[in-house]
Amino acid sequence: MKMTRSEELRRLVEAIGPGNIWRPICDDDGNMLVEGAGHDAESLPEAPPEHIDFSGKSVVDLGCNVGTFVCRAARLGARKAAGIDIDSNLVRCAEILAVQEGVDNVEFMVCDFNSPPEEKFDVAMMFDIIGNTTIGNGQMHTFIKIMENWAAKELIISLKPVCKARKHFHKTPQEFCELFPTENMDGECFYPVREAVDFLGGRGWELKTDLPEGYETCGMKMLLHFVRS
Ligand SMILES: C[S@@+](CC[C@H](N)C(=O)[O-])C[C@H]1O[C@@H](n2cnc3c(N)ncnc32)[C@H](O)[C@@H]1O
Question: Which domain CATH number covers 136?
Answer without folding.
Answer: 3.40.50.150
